[in-house]
Amino acid sequence: xxxxxxxxxxxxxxxxxxxxxxxxxxxxxxxxxxxxxxxxxxxxxxxxxxxxxxxxxxxxxxxxxxxxxxxxxxxxxxxxxxxxxxxxxxxxxxxxxxxxxxxxxxxxxxxxxxxxxxx
Length: 119
Ligand code: SF4
Hints:
CATH topology of the largest domain: CPE0013-like fold
Number of strands: 10
CATH superfamily of the largest domain: CPE0013-like
Distance between the termini: 58 Å
Helix content: 10-25%
Oligomer: single chain
Strand content: 35-45%
Bound molecules: iron/sulfur cluster
CATH architecture of the largest domain: Roll
Structural class: alpha+beta
Largest sheet: 5 strands, mixed
Number of helices: 2
CATH class of the largest domain: Alpha Beta
């Protein structure tokens, strides 16, 4: 049995997923969205990645970035390692792609703020 807290709305239902034979039994959800969320969490959990990367010649040393789509949860650590090794050069515009197609996932990493060049 697995327990999952549904994060699809503020109610935060505690959902249980039981393996009964070849079928999954889902209980504790107050609506269909919770069932869909629990199934996704069991079969293919995904997350938006948020982190920072180093900046050269910027007014700050770190630039906040995020993935433009959800990434498989099991690749998040590997993606963070990749991004920890890169440096971007200021100036950077919010929304600019910082890293394309990370780990061949089809997901891009984008800047979440502007970063001006140091004067
Ligand atoms: S199961 Fe439905 S009501 Fe419960 S937290 Fe998820 S979305 Fe909200």
